[in-house]
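MOLECULE: protein
FOLLOWS: sequence and fold
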Amino acid sequence: MAGLIPSEVVAGVLSSTDIVDLIGGYLPLSKAGRSFKALCPFHSEKTPSFMVNPDRQIFHCFGCGEGGDAARFLMRREGFSFPEAIEFLAQRAGIPIPRRRGGGREQEDGRLRLYEVQRVACEYFRK
């Protein structure tokens, strides 16, 4: 889908995502106090150093230093871009994503016009 995802929608999608539920679908999590722990999916280890904090809705690996929110986890685990991760989470939560117009065809047309102006100016100054 073309267009920008409004920042309010991004914030809403992230706040409606339970990071423990999301990551628990990828990794076997075990309770460790108020957090959850697992073996890190981003590097090889024998002792769990990957922590998921449900209060702050973030993850962090004390072994490799990787960390972030639900979107960052999907970006690293699935190779999604940020908009793809937000779309995935929104679809999972049943949240529609309105788009702002920006970029796309209008931006390309503007670049073509600018290129044409530069070409004409170049020809003028060559003479």
